[in-house]
Amino acid sequence: MALETWLIKVKTVISHSFDSVITSTPIPKPSKKSSVGVLALEIAGLMSKLFHLWQSLSDKNIIRVRNDSVSLDGVHKIVSNDESFLLGLACAEMAENLRLVAKSVSRLSKRCGDTSLRGFEHLFDEFANLGRDTNCWVLSWKDMEAKTKKLDRYVTVTATLYKEIEELSVLENGLRKALHCGELEGTTKEQKVLDLQQKIFWQRQEVKYLKDRSLWNRSFDTVVLILAKSIFTILARIKLVFGIAHGYPTSLPRCLSASATVHPTENPTTCNFVSGPLKISKLEGNKDFSTGFFETNTKLLNPPATTLGAAALALHYANLIIILEKMIKSPQLVGIDARDDLYAMLPNSIRSLLRARLKGVGFSASDPVLAGEWRDALGRILGWLSPLAHNMIKWQSERSFEQQNLVPKTNVFLLQTLFFANKEKTEAAITELLVGLNYIWRFEREMTAKALFECANFNGFLNPQNSS
Fold first, then answer.
1. Which of 347, 364, 345 shows the shortest CA–CA distance to 438?
2. Which GO terms are recorded in the biological process aspect for this UniProt protein (predicted)?
3. pTM metric for this prediction
4. What burial class does residue 414 get, using C-beta atoms within 10 Å of its C-beta: 0-12 exposed, 13-18 middle, 19+ buried?
């Protein structure tokens, strides 16, 4: 009996202890994942850039890089005629654009609940440098095409959402003004307030609907996973397109990308990077991937000391060339003040070259044959120099602070601009434009003065009495 009594007491104590543990330790509820909210617009900007990057890697655009961008006359004259180097610049710029997007995604990934997504930065570096895709984030061509449509849809709906939010803000401000307005009285004020309240109600419903469809109510895990898969796939595409063996992914099934159109493989059923479309083997031989894929490409984008980019003159010279182009087209419209303003834009190096070229040149410019030859020569120079200047303006404007969240409207590469242009060669070409403009400008002025003088003499001949 004593033993049974003792066992009952022990059982009672144990049961009470379990009850206290159960009551004191609440059952953890699954935490609701936080939505991206106001960061939706920033994320939409990242998706836009990824969408644009993927489009720029299409077969059509890759062929354009090879046949148009790299083959520009101006590029060969003052940038480089080494095709491997130029293709390397195109590859490096694409990789750098992707790296900047990945950097922003890495910051967003810190808010994810999934541990693999939180480690996006490390996983991306590992994939870029070693080709390891432990989470199988590289999509097939078909899946990526579907993913880009989803990205585009998210971007469009999110942009619409922000427009509707702005409209809602305008209506709410209008309601506040109407409530505090002393000019309206009685029924008129009441009716206006009711109308605004009704509009605000429906506008809020529209905003709520768009928040559900856009990125606003998506969780960080959902959004970052979409971005991560897109980034991995785009990097794989870059390596495939430019034939980079290091870390080459094998999960992109569309092996006949640009390789079938630029450098067709003899066996179209195989898929390997050797048949990659853009051969930059010379460049790859000089690359040291021990420092990292992106570090290597970033170094390649650093302009040499002999270029306009290194001298921080690329944008200034682009504006100068465009002004010269306008003046050469209509030299008769160039006034003294405009000519002085143009001279004030010239750096000391070009002024010295110009003085040396104009030394010994006479003041007379009355030879129409020579003027015609100068026009032809200036047209030829502008034919290859002007596109690089205009591309420089486009490239810079699309990367300004105001446009940084928008999609670039053109596929202008840095190699198509004056950024990597040789400084001495560019200044020599600009000097030639200035010398030619000087002659045809003086020729036009002399011809105009001569015509006015002859006209005055002719009028005097017709009216001898008035002249006397």
1. 364
2. positive regulation of growth
3. 0.78
4. buried
